[in-house]
Specification:
The complex is a heterodimer of chains A (about 800) and B (about 80).
Chain A (H helix, E strand, L loop, with lengths): L8 H4 L19 H8 L1 H27 L1 E2 L2 E2 L13 H10 L5 E3 L5 H14 L2 H10 L4 H9 L4 H17 L23 E2 L7 H16 L5 E6 L6 H10 L3 H4 L11 E7 L2 E2 L2 E2 L25 E4 L3 H16 L5 E6 L17 H8 L3 H11 L7 H20 L18 H4 L22 H8 L20 H15 L3 E5 L24 E3 L4 H13 L3 E8 L7 H8 L2 H4 L8 E7 L12 H6 L4 E3 L4 H13 L4 E6 L26 E4 L4 E5 L4 H13 L4 E5 L2 E3 L4 H10 L2 E8 L4 H13 L8 E5 L17 H12 L15 H6 L3
Parallel strand pairs in A: 3-4, 3-5, 5-6, 6-10, 9-10, 11-12, 11-13, 13-14, 14-16, 15-16, 18-19, 18-21, 21-22
Antiparallel strand pairs in A: 1-2, 7-8, 15-20, 17-19
Chain B lengths: L5 E4 L9 E7 L6 E2 L4 E6 L4 E5 L4 E5 L6 E3 L3 E5 L1
Antiparallel strand pairs in B: 1-8, 2-4, 2-7, 3-6, 4-5, 6-8
The chains are: A alpha/beta (about 800), B mainly beta (about 80).
Chain lengths: ~800, ~80
Amino acid sequence: MPKALVIDPAVTRQRDSLAVPPIPVHAYDVPFADALTLHGAETLRDALRHMVLIREFESMLASFKATGAYRGVDYAYRGPAHLSIGQEGAAVGAALALAPEDYTFGSHRSHGEFLAKGLGAIARLPEAELDGIMARQDGGRLREAAETAVAGEGRALAETFLMLGFLAEIFMRATGFNGGMGGSMHAFFPPLGCYPNNAIVGASAGIATGAALRRRLAGEAGICVAHAGDGATGCGPVWEAMNFAAMGQLSTLWEAPFDGGLPVLFFFTNNFYAMGGQTSGETMGWDRLSRIGAGVAPNALHAETVDGTDVLAVADAVARKRALLVDRQGPALLDVECYRISGHSTTDANAYRSRDELKLWEAHDPIARLATSLIDAGALAEDGLAALEEEAGRRIEAVTRAAVDEALSPSVDIVAHPVLIGDLMFSGGETPVPDAPSTLTAPREASAALRKLARKSRAGRDADGAPLSPMRAITLRDGLTEAILDRMERDPRLAAWGEELREWGGAFGVTRGLSDVLPYHRLFNAPISEAAIVATAIGHAMAGGRSMVELMYADFIGRAGDEIFNQLAKWQAMSAGQLKLPVVLRASVGSKYGAQHSQDWSALIAHIPGLKVIYPATPYDAKGLMASALASDDPVVVFESQRLYDRVEQFRHAVPAESYTLPLGVPEVKREGRDVTVLTIGPSLYPALDAARDLAALGVAAEVIDARSLVPFDYAPVLASVARTGHLLVVSEASERGSMAQTLAATVTRHGFASLKAAPIVLGAPNWIVPGAEMETTYFPQAHDIVDAVTAEFYPDRKPNRRGVRDWDGLSLARRGL
Amino acid sequence: MAQSVTVLLVPQLGTEVTEAEITEWLMADGEPVEAGEPVVNISTTKMAMDLEAPASGRLKIVMEEGEIAKVGDTLAEIS
């Protein structure tokens, strides 16, 4: 879209053939003696020790799952155990080349990745810094438990601290790194660069890419590693993330020092199986995983296949890729081949592979391989490996005893604190607009679109009270634009992206004019990659930024399902509140285009715990609520009705030009009445107001309350209203079944039952597809439907007004699935 | 011989659009313009677009930035 990039047919139509750069496969050929000189014997013995510790740690988990005991400790571990026994060389090799400040984002099979990164950082960080990290964690409680478990200090203590914090987390103890809210597949410990492991295959790719974006924008030195298995190459969001990290604009349009491909390494631990499906040869099209780099960028993402059973080959490759990333030539891809000796999980009966195959790989154990090389080079005693194994057994046993000890590693006590997990869902924190200098690259007056905005009437009506046209007065769209611009101007941590967000101003013009005053790295056009748009927003926020992203149509939420439902909604609680996700996700609710572009999915989002949800219906509310959403340290999903973008203000005299916030979660009475309470969600406000006028003519005074927010929601104004009116009608454009409107009605019934003179009514959309523009009025509740409902159900003595089509039998429809 | 004058009109911008705002003149009043050259940016509530000079000549601006024009109104004359 940028006019600076001309698509010249003389260039695009030239005869040509594409060449793919060579993709090295097992090219590492450094004599062991040279590697020994490079790393030093001490470091390589440490690498061996780390692999041994990881294997013993996972063997302990395997033993608990299989027998309920390990070295005399009885424990019924009920959680998952996705083990990586046999793959230790990949994790430790990578950690050997990573700096403490680098971030790793794990896969679901991440015990090794987590421990390797943590142990690697402990080996490199100054001891004083390690002491500080241990002192700050949970008020020093974990450090004390570690000291009690194994006598020691300095790095040795830090290692015990790491293993105990991790195991306590796996056992869901309160002293675990995530406070017991994460477990085996979700552990994290940022002070050592261990960002979250992820139970969803491939999910770390997009999150790591977003974190890499934040690190670039913040001028930080470290890189991000996205761990995934070979099976993740079958996941669309992984491809979306790789493309996002390699977007052309990073080199063609972004200005220094923010330019260049993102510093993220896609590290595929390729164990040849996606659970039981064999990737190469069965479920994937590629023969070598590294080949896929060629499908993403001209440099093939610097892809290589390396031997994951050789710590030194992996360390060599990661060091080279890291240098490329630091040099702004990212992203990079590594296909790290290794073999999982253990099953996928404890229920794995190896039905998909033969004993012969397992035997073939026994000769390629990464631990035996490095030990043999060290012994052959005289850098390890003949019985050195056995000694390390014996020591690892003793340490892991001590850590295990401490992790199952209620005094040292107490369980999470939900009985004593029934809302403990609930309290972790939202921080409730707000960061006001910083009192910082403007970050705009040009004054607002330099933008024709922003000058146009400044010329508009702040009031929605003229002197005679007649509504002004949306060309002349501030609209709901303009309210959103102003709130976004106010925050973007003063908060350099906030960046925004989405499809057509820049020159076009978003498909519906909400960000129009912003590209005149904001640089590319603050506001950019994203690929049509909803999963990556949301995943990168999460990673960007997780790493210290603030994100505002747009999905164009709410109907495209499905394309970012995992990212919204499993990642955005859950990471604050899964980190026990240690991670903050200040992400605003904007989604417009369509109209006129039929089933796949017009559905109100606000009820679906409100159903998922962990997301705040707002749906403003007036310019004043839109500006104030958007400002609050952008100030919120919690994720907020903003629904914007396309039918309301052109609405001018009609409830308040004017929309203030200066910035202001409105509290999330507070419904507002938009019209007072004594006979019936009509609670509306989003655009239903306007037909409800029209209906209120019609009902007034019938002698029924309707009170209209605009929900404004769905999560959180303060019922007090609604219950107070129902106490006066005795009747409740909830109106929404979402399909009725399982909707937020039903929840509102049920909750008011439960808590306001004594006030009610009749059962509340829910008037939503029917449980079928949204029809096209020609039939929309038969689908979304109209003013006459509201009048019908009120007169037929609450005031049957008044003249019924059956002009709608909603004269159906709900129970009969339900039997048919409607 | 009378000088020929070509008018620049607000075009039909879709069936639902009746008016547009002159957001920015890209050329100054009295400036010579070439046919096909973008001279003004106009916008509706949903979209913005550049309009091209329908002829070559000298631009005479009729409606100023910030004014709201109806479809068919004359924005400028080119003579």
